Amino acid sequence: MTFRTATRDDVETVVRLLAADSISTGRDAWTPELAGAYYAAFDRMTAQGGNRVLVAELDRRIVGCLQLTILQGLSRRGVPRAQVEMVRVDESLRGRGIGSALLRHAMEEARAEGATMMQLTTQVVRADAQRFYKRLGFAATHVGMKVALDAPGAAS
Fold first, then answer.
1. CB neighbours (10 Å) of residue 129?
2. CA terminus-to-terminus distance, the chain
3. How many angstroms separate the CA atoms of 99 and 3, rounded?
4. Prediction pTM value
């Protein structure tokens, strides 16, 4: 298995991997009409320093991905921390250590950039994902909250 930073040529494959996730079905989809929006999002994301998509490959095929962002802030004495999002492994290949290896690779990259902590969120209904992250040393220390900014009742 190899790991690398995704390129623009990988966008379709990564989005298809996101869309194939059984819980996320309907939230993402690769269509000709949406391709431009995904490419534009990738371009904006990668233009930001410290923000990238990492992919895991088996036999030159992308089988896993995650987004790694190095966050700079004033808390924790200004030491950077890493944020991980959109962790996905091809459902037919889960349980083979791909996700663990990919996250360990992301941890190495984060450490190399000076991050001393990695954080992530996972959906409450993903008990299997929560067990997976705990095995890698993550602990549930905070309560995550979201608001749709266009929803009635969102602060304006």
1. 15
2. 47
3. 11
4. 0.91
